[in-house]
Design brief:
180 residues, alpha+beta, MutS, DNA mismatch repair protein, domain I, Trna Endonuclease, Chain: A, domain 1, 6-stranded mixed sheet, 5-stranded mixed sheet, 11 strands, globular, disordered N terminus
Length: 180
Amino acid sequence: MVEEAKGEIILGEFQNSRVIAVDSNLTREMHDKSRYGEPFGHKKFQYSLHEALYLIEKEKMEVYDGKKRLNFDAFNKKAKKFEPNFLIRHAVFRDLRNRGYIVKTALKFGADFRVYDRGVKPGDDHAKWVVFTVPEGDTLTWYEFAAKNRVAHSTRKRLLLAIVDDESEVTFYEVNWVRP
């Protein structure tokens, strides 16, 4: 296990489908301010693969696989073993984080992400949206669309469809129930 943060960089270790870092002033501060990572076990923090790659891109984290430091491509290659469409989903994660939203995984909701409105932190209130990522060339049947809408409705969240094009640009569509 990588010991602790060096300076202003979190040192993490790639473990299965997450990244683990030792609890430090920096990990606690980043969690308290922006909800990166989650406390885990005894004096550790765990990060989703998307959080870890985002922090790598922002030069706030270094991730190791044993003694080998993972660059963007190496991290992506490992992450794709757990999430085949990892980079497409990551484009959505990055876009939302860059816009100031807190983004967390939404596997238990059957979605890609849950997104908290600006200024709202997980634990203080509920997520506003569940996000489903769709590559631009893919199609959804009406049944698939209705299923996604039902997930959002049953979890009392708004449905946000994130369409990702070939250049990793994201277009968002919010879907609402309307009673005429």
